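User: For a reading group we're discussing how well predicted structures match intuition. Take Dirigent protein. Before you show the prediction, I'll give you the sequence so everyone sees exactly what went in.
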Amino acid sequence: MANPSTLSLFLPFSLLLLLLALTTLLSPTHAVFSQPISREVLGLKANEADNNLTQLTFYFHDVVSGSNPTTVTIAKAKTASASFGSLAMMDDPLTDGPDAMKSKLVGRAQGMYALADQSETAPIMIMNLLFLEGQYNGSTLSVLGRNPVNQGVREMPVVGGTGVFRFAKGYAQAKTHTFDKTTGNAVVEYTVFVSHASGSTAPGSGGGSDSGSGSDGGSGSPGSTPSNRASSSSLGLGFLMSSSVASLFLVHLLSLA
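Assistant: Thanks. Here is the predicted 3D structure of Dirigent protein, as structure tokens, for the group to look at:
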């Protein structure tokens, strides 16, 4: 038979183990850094090909003069010669034809470019192509690359996209259609080839992940998926059971003392 004084010392220890187990069970756990997810969680259709290939052709109107320019210089190096180091911000219209007055507006090129080459005019382009027409309304493509404007055809990478163009990758070919040496205004023909996820929808059209919900009706973020919640619950329950077994084992040992 165990000594009552020994049992009285053991009781707080048992309660401490149980409290620690409950704390582990109820405390939030950090999400894993990466995990596989299904296409359905992102609102993509699993029964279609993984990627669509789309070609887009439009005209980019860069207006730097007049009372309503679409591109303005926002910074220029004081010590640099010529225009090296200049930084311009743009909100250029994109149309389906070269004549801006007679063509349909299909989007806008929003971003900036900087003259980063001391030997030729080759700005670094950082821009989002925001589309406003048809099934692409509200979707974007992001372009980041070098644009040597004196070459016949320039090629720049497409590094991402949103809406219909989620998971986009590809390239854009730019070819100057007209350039006015007096005003500096230019019309550039763009042909974009892009691979993107099938089944994606434009923002606001009720696509799967736009609602912020996953397949279980909860948060759509990877950190709150059912597998993560189940994993943390299993760890807490396992610790609780282990603590209980340890407590019972110690009680048994003390009863034999």
